[in-house]
Amino acid sequence: MFQKLILAATLLAFGVVVLGAYVRLSDAGLGCPDWPGCYGKLSPAHAHAEISQELAVRPQGPVSHAKAWKEMVHRYLASTLGLLIVIIGSMAWIKREKLKQGIGLPTFLIGFVILQGLFGMWTVTLKLTPIIVTLHLLGGMITLSLLTWLLQRQSRDIAAVRGVDAERIKSYAAFALLVVFLQIALGGWVSSNYAALACSDFPTCKGVLVPTMDLHHAFQLVRELGMTAQGTLLTREALTAIHWVHRVGALGTLLVVGLLVIKLLRVPALTRAGAFIALVLATQLSLGIANVVLSLPLPIAVAHNAVAALLLLSLVMLNFRLRKSLNRDYAGV
What we know:
disordered C terminus
């Protein structure tokens, strides 16, 4: 039952991350402008009159019946995920002797999902402040990664890698995981600042390899959406800088993860893992390019977020496997 609950939570976490991307990319993040309910009601159906009144005043505003449902379904699923994590953490404590595993990770997950819920609230109450939106995205990715790690701990049939091979790749695999996480952070910053189409051509940006940019204002973290920290409008050059740095990060990610794939393909026990990571990496790069040349179609933009999560998880599982191979008696934290 413990393993099944973790599996259910992991799958649900992946769904919540992808749905969160869909909500953000379809401009439904303020579909219900309060929290945790919708105009103080349990569901958009109960708030039908309030939503209709807002639509009459601002037909092109952020509130609509469809957007409200998108936002609230995301909240319902996120709340369900939080409840599952609390149950998992409680079971880890109650059955810690039987499970023979550490309780540190399940306990940490409870605290972290509470923090993630607060970021979800701040995303709405602080009107999509870019740093909060980005941290909320990263919090979802971290929650998903930790659940994946916890799920791996329940598996007894993970194939071991020869100690010498695992030792040789372990540090570089951890570095690749960090690089992918940082690239996801850059992608979140692009999305939360609506800079995905700041460069509409590829491989150049505005017709050149290095366009005119405002890096200083682009990466001021504490500011409102569309504004600089000084309260002036964010320029096109700043949005271009955000987009361009994400492209450079994608190139760096390709080199780092590509080298990892080469290392994995040289180890017989890891060739399948290497091939899978290569496939996911190629898919992710293709989706990123398609977003630019096709002007950010919603299905491809959402898929870009989903495959980013899949790439991250593939590296989490690889790192777990390498660590376990180096310590056969590994029981986790």
